[in-house]
Fold these 2 entries.
Entry 1:
Amino acid sequence: MPTPKASSDSPKRVIASGNSELDSRLGGGIPAGSLVLIEGSSGAGKSVLSQQILKGSLMGGYRATLFTTENTVKSLVSQMESIDLDIFDFLLLGKLRVFPIELSHLGDLASATLLQAMQQEQQRERDLIIVDSLTSALSHTDDKSPILSFFEASKRLCASGVSVIITLHAQAIASDFMNPLRSVCDAHLVLHTEQDGQRLVKTLEVAKIRGAASVTGSIVGFDVEPGWGMRVIPISKARG
Ligand SMILES: Nc1ncnc2c1ncn2[C@@H]1O[C@H](COP(=O)(O)OP(=O)(O)OP(=O)(O)O)[C@@H](O)[C@H]1O
Ligand SMILES: [Mg+2]
């Protein structure tokens, strides 16, 4: 099972989930230093996917920080444990730092405040920073330009080698505003729940991974199973 490599002499540093089936659909993993956008509606799998990548990165020796609007540290640990992703030791060792945040309370200052916290984390030599999710920073304001600035500043953070993953409910934003955000990102993953014959399935579409053209456009079906996590499943419209 391939794991991400963190050593500086490694030929290709990637962020990967450690789940070989999933990683192969991501071209072996997302190049380190990427700004990654994970889009999807509620229940589509944004948190589970980012948690898989978080655990894979920690197993590969990376240091990570998670900003979560959805969990306390305790509920995150038990949620991840329920899908066989134990993070407790990484928390104890300081390899993982978790910050529960309430962006909606910050109003117009939400994205700027979050960015400041992310910059502080980057100075602590983090390899991976995850924001799950950014949606509540958007819903209370009509002016979306601070969000584009947030993405651009996150991209500048990535230039130092840190990878940044941002999850977002895309339907919270007008589609003409989503496109500039998508184009700033190096990798863009879209999660759907859709009809496949008689059944509803979750899908992961690799809309873009810069540096991995071969996987762009591929669609894979997956399931979330208790005690296991994400499992790739065959679907009729799968590509790639
Ligand atoms: N331990 C588990 N056992 C079984 N299913 C699970 C488990 N944990 C999560 N799931 C399922 O995985 C799916 C994806 O959940 P996830 O929390 O990642 O969605 P999300 O896109 O983050 O949703 P939201 O926008 O509401 O945060 C859901 O259907 C959820 O019920
Ligand atoms: Mg979630």
Note: The chain has seven helices and eleven strands.
Entry 2:
Amino acid sequence: MEYTRLGSTGLHVSQLSLGTWRFGRETGGVVETDREEAHELLDAAWEQGINFIDTADRYGNPHGTAEQFIGEWLADYDREDFVIASKVYFPFNGRDPDRGPGPNDSGLGRKHIRAQIEGTLDRLGTDYLDIYYLHRWEDDTPIEETLATLHDLVREGKVHYLGASTMAAWKLTKALWTSDVEGYEPISVTQPLFHAGYRDDIKEYLDVCIDQDLAVCPYSPLAGGFLTGKYERVDEDDPTAFEGPEGSRGDIYDSFEDYYLSERGWHVLDEIRAIADELDATPAQVALRWLIEQDRFTCVPIVGARTVDQLAENAGAVDISLTDDQFDRVVDARYAEDGQRWGHRQ
Ligand SMILES: NC(=O)c1ccc[n+]([C@@H]2O[C@H](COP(=O)([O-])OP(=O)(O)OC[C@H]3O[C@@H](n4cnc5c(N)ncnc54)[C@H](OP(=O)(O)O)[C@@H]3O)[C@@H](O)[C@H]2O)c1
């Protein structure tokens, strides 16, 4: 595993990050990744050389369970070996699951952020976070209040770097501009939805990241598993009609096809499958490698493997490389329907 400097920060991270969204999450009364499975995945990630763990206060049921699983595991390791990111914004029921979130248990106001950072650090069993993300943008709280609070957390040593997840490009720009004007710690790491099959709404966001030298840590880099090639199309006229393995995300999540399946997605997957054959690799590895090899910005995909075998396959992405032609064929497949272009290798 190679280690990459994360954009303009002084942090060095593995080429892949481990996502923990499914740790402690319940669907249909079934825990998707329980404590033991979570700890096996964390062990396997560490053995693969992955030092970058992505979580959020919101993950798990009740919220906070994912951070708790990680903290219990981390107690047997040296905290300094890991780069740990968490997030704040969404309603949090972890204070009292029976009562649910109160009026100040969500958003980006000072009270909520202050409460959440203490809870997050406590559950993770650490004195500091490497990266603290705004999970989303909040319209009700002035961005000055949010950034002033985060700036103080950095000064207090509770947070090292600031991040932003999904938000409009102009809002990300507004946050950067506000930090600049007010002298606050800037956002230096981003976490958008970005995978080979997805390009809507992301071009302008990535243009901001390129211009401002922000690191990009894409979430759902395999389109929730779609780009592994384990789903088959069953209707030529309907891109949302598919078959997939029992128990897979496509099988258990009602909204899977609306999120991840599109004409463009199938087209990109065809190209990724062809490149995988040429490289004797798997589609998942090619899809991840295409992200790692972005050459205009630092790109560290957050893999959401559910099993140790999936993680091992995905980690194989660091051992292959794409030719310029293979890289650009994925770009061309993204734009096949309208002939536009963005992101050919430079
Ligand atoms: N900032 C945000 O708003 C946000 C949103 C979403 C996620 N995230 C972060 O990003 C992480 C990754 O997101 P994601 O889980 O959507 O990522 P993903 O990599 O696109 O999808 C992961 C899922 O695909 C399937 N899969 C993965 N590798 C596979 C393989 N080799 N073979 C077959 N199936 C495979 C597994 O589901 P099945 O086996 O169940 O099919 C797995 O849970 C999350 O854990 C979280 O940390 C952040």
Note: The radius of gyration is 20 Å.
